[in-house]
Design brief:
The structure holds two protein chains of two kinds. By secondary structure, chain A is of the alpha/beta class. Chain A is about 25% helix and about 25% strand. Chain A has one domain: Rossmann fold, CATH 3.40.50. In chain A, strand 10 and strand 11 form a beta hairpin. In chain A, helix 1 crosses helix 2. Chain A is globular and about 50 Å long. By secondary structure, chain B is mainly α. Chain B has a single domain, classed as Glycosyltransferase. Chain B starts with 13 loop residues before the first helix and ends in a 15-residue tail after the last helix. The chains are: A alpha/beta, B mainly alpha.
């Protein structure tokens, strides 16, 4: 049965959202304990349900610089199982490399979560269903989505905290590009670029509605992300039940203005909260963990502080 | 492990005997066992049939037509393909889709040696010929040449190839597939092929990563060199194999050889050896490494991996061009 998506609601009728910031300084810390404690506060409705974790597994990543860290994926899986989930699957569909197994092997995910044969779903080549897009923010009228995504009871977006050379940032909303199957649209999923990246992000998220977001900000990426930037240690996990609110909080932690990031601002019209006053902040304060990310010159207007860092390394 | 002389087409010298056995014991049975009742193949066993994996499986089985049950599997697979063809001659990536896409090249490729489906092939090739990427139009190219941000990925807008889906940009892999099919069909020297083919060839060289090899088609973004990938590099080398002496080919082949030992999946391993084999380089490492990957507790083996492995060990090159591969 297809998961029932919550209604699309403008912000003024939407209850406040909750976002938690947890300080975790390294992947060697007890990430599972931190996430379990945090998820208990949110009490997500996962008992007896199938949970799909959707990390960002975009490229071969032996150094652990690009993808959601396997320690965080494993910790989230353990936390949801402890909360009573019947099954916790992991799935993604890279937009630039169609060899998922090479990606998984490079980051040694198997060492963290055990055999992947029945655990990992390559969303690029999963069976698909055609979905008519209700929002029509982009030029797209419909998209195919993997059945695993459509039928999971609880969908969790798990990006890494990164800048992005086209979209400004890639967080839990942009991460949903990975649910669009390469087996239907190719590598890259260029149809989304031609339809307008920012608007396509809204269409995709409105169609599949991630229920929860866990952002790996222990080590992020700044500059020419999502794959050619530089490591940025931020030492946080940012977690919440509203992906728009989570991404807005992430942007503020990165020293950026979410209202000026097009896809976050557009998503805030129907999918969640962008305003600080509508977000109940748990854990650390934004100010206490704020760590400005350097951005490409064309995104300098996104900075909260005009003297914030600009990425110049290797740039034209 | 006993060498298997029973499969025609496999070179059973000492270096490839184990590989021959692997194809006979693992690859071909895997393909036969995972053919769906509708005649097609899914990307992974137990899923719904799609055009792309069906085309790869058929290309592999066609290399070994006398292996057990192959004729029936081929017939049923071909029927799946022709039933999936759209009115306009293209093939869709998923059932129910009403638009053709890059898999049209793969379907044509699989049909090229089947005379009874010549009509389907002609309609498919016509669709390919008519399918123009969004970046090939005059106004788009002019806008790109004049754009302020034209240096973002430093590509020559005069060149174009084929796109993944209609009306989007040219990319390396779909361009390679279309070129391979056209080249195979033409049976003429490459110099006599169409202007469009030549534009596509130029596009591939323009999109090569600095230092050799290809990724999806972004050799440089914001001044930073892109990282090559196995799949696009192999298909580009195959598509450009008649230019084996060009420095770009040699450079890319060197990249592929130097990265062969770091490959961590059956798909990329098989592909890398297809690329090396087309240029006459040793495939022995494939035989040595394949058993590390299968039977696999890591991920289910894909139909593509089984098909590409089979093709990697084929000595005939029929699936490529019906003629001997270029040797350097």
């Amino acid at each position: 049965m297809t998961r029932e998506a919550p209604a699309l609601l403008p912000p003024f009728v939407r209850p406040p959202s909750r976002v938690a910031i947890r300080r975790v300084l390294s992947y060697q810390a007890d990430v599972a304990a931190v996430l379990h404690e945090t998820l208990r506060e949110f009490d997500p409705p996962v008992r007896g349900k199938v949970v799909l974790l959707k990390p960002n597994l975009i490229a071969i990543d032996p150094q652990g610089t690009t993808n959601t860290n396997p320690a965080v994926i494993a910790a989230a899986r353990e936390a949801f199982l402890r909360l009573g989930a019947a099954e916790v699957l992991i799935g993604d569909g890279s937009g630039i490399d169609r060899d998922s197994q090479a990606i998984l092997e490079s980051m040694r995910l198997r060492d963290y979560v055990g055999p992947l044969a029945k655990l990992f779903v390559d969303l690029n080549v999963d069976d698909v269903e055609r979905v008519v897009l209700k929002t029509r923010a982009s030029r797209l009228k419909e998209l195919y989505f993997p059945k695993t995504v459509r039928h999971a009871d609880f969908l969790v977006s798990m990006p890494k905290l990164k800048t992005h050379h086209w979209a400004g940032v890639t967080l839990s909303l942009k991460n949903m590009f990975g649910t669009v199957p390469g087996g239907c649209y190719g590598w890259p999923k260029n149809v989304l670029h031609w339809a307008g990246i920012d608007r396509a992000i809204l269409d995709i998220n409105a169609a599949i509605r991630p229920d929860f977001a866990i952002v790996d900000g222990i080590v992020g990426m700044e500059g020419n992300g999502p794959i050619q930037g530089a490591l940025k240690s931020t030492g946080v996990l940012i977690v919440g039940d509203d992906p728009v609110a989570v991404d807005s909080t992430c942007a503020r932690v990165m020293g950026l203005l979410p209202e000026k990031i097009k896809h976050i601002a557009q998503a805030a019209t129907l999918l969640g909260h962008i305003e600080v006053e509508k977000i109940l902040q748990l854990g650390e304060s934004i100010a206490s963990v704020r760590s400005p990310f350097s951005v490409l010159r064309q995104f300098r207007h996104l900075r909260q502080d005009a003297s914030g860092p600009i990425w110049t390394q290797n740039c034209l | 492990m006993e060498p298997s002389p029973s499969i025609p087409g496999i070179n059973c010298n000492a270096a490839s005997a184990e590989a021959a056995s692997f194809v006979e014991r693992i690859c071909l049975p895997f393909l036969r066992e995972n053919q769906n009742p509708d005649g097609g193949w899914a990307f992974q066993a137990g899923h719904e049939s799609r055009v792309e994996p069906t085309a790869w499986a058929l290309l592999a089985l066609q290399e070994f037509p006398s292996s057990a049950a192959a004729p029936d599997a081929l017939d049923r697979g071909m029927r799946f393909l022709v039933d999936a063809q759209l009115e306009n001659g293209g093939w869709p990536a998923a059932s129910g889709d009403r638009e053709g896409c890059w898999v049209t090249s793969l379907a044509c490729w699989a049909l090229q040696s089947q005379k009874e489906y010549a009509g389907n092939l002609v309609r498919g090739l016509r669709w390919l010929n008519d399918d123009r990427p969004g970046d090939s139009g005059f106004w788009w190219r002019m806008a790109r040449k004049l754009a302020v941000g034209k240096g973002i990925n430093a590509q020559n807008a005069s060149f174009s190839g084929w796109s993944w889906t209609p009306h989007t940009a040219s990319w390396v892999e779909p361009t390679c597939y279309a070129m391979i099919v056209q080249r195979r069909e033409a049976k003429t020297p490459a110099s006599d092929l169409t202007w469009r083919y030549k534009l596509a060839e130029a596009m591939l060289y323009d999109r090569m990563c600095p230092g050799g090899g290809w990724n999806c088609g972004n050799p440089r973004v914001y001044g930073v060199a892109g990282q090559p990938q196995i799949g696009p590099t192999v298909w580009a080398l195959v598509a450009l194999r008649e230019n084996a002496q060009r420095p770009e080919n040699r450079q890319s082949l060197a990249w592929l050889e130097s990265n062969r030992d770091t490959v961590r999946s059956p798909e990329s391993l098989a592909l890398s050896h297809i690329g090396l084999g087309v240029y006459g380089r040793s495939k022995s490492a494939l035989a040595e490494n394949l058993h590390d990957f299968h039977p696999s507790a890591k991920l289910p083996w894909s139909v593509s991996a089984a098909a590409w492995t089979t093709l990697a060990f084929s000595e005939s090159s029929r699936w490529l061009d019906g003629m001997s591969a270029t040797r350097t």
